[in-house]
Amino acid sequence: MEEAKEEILDILSITKRKGLSLDFNTAGLYKKYCLETYPSEWIVKEALNLGIPLIFGSDAHAMDQVGRSYDLYEKAMD
């Protein structure tokens, strides 16, 4: 797990250096075997600490899914 974490931190560093953003997707919250956002909370925190902008996504496939759990995105941005 530690090796994977280091890889992710390297990817975040490259993301920051290239001036890219990161998708904050809430679809995983509604998937039986995931139940969390994509990416995971610790990655979101690391990205924000680096100043990487987050872009909200709900991966909607129906009208009632558009913007689902947007409040979690807003909370992460505080």
From TrEMBL:
<dbReference type="Pfam" id="PF13263">
    <property type="entry name" value="PHP_C"/>
</dbReference>
<dbReference type="GO" id="GO:0005737">
    <property type="term" value="C:cytoplasm"/>
</dbReference>
<keyword id="KW-0378">Hydrolase</keyword>
<comment type="similarity">
    <text>Belongs to the PHP hydrolase family. HisK subfamily.</text>
</comment>
<keyword id="KW-0368">Histidine biosynthesis</keyword>
<comment type="pathway">
    <text>Amino-acid biosynthesis; L-histidine biosynthesis; L-histidine from 5-phospho-alpha-D-ribose 1-diphosphate: step 8/9.</text>
</comment>
<dbReference type="InterPro" id="IPR016195">
    <property type="entry name" value="Pol/histidinol_Pase-like"/>
</dbReference>
<dbReference type="GO" id="GO:0004401">
    <property type="term" value="F:histidinol-phosphatase activity"/>
</dbReference>
<keyword id="KW-0028">Amino-acid biosynthesis</keyword>
<dbReference type="InterPro" id="IPR010140">
    <property type="entry name" value="Histidinol_P_phosphatase_HisJ"/>
</dbReference>
<protein>
    <recommendedName>
        <fullName>Histidinol-phosphatase</fullName>
        <ecNumber>3.1.3.15</ecNumber>
    </recommendedName>
</protein>
<dbReference type="GO" id="GO:0000105">
    <property type="term" value="P:L-histidine biosynthetic process"/>
</dbReference>
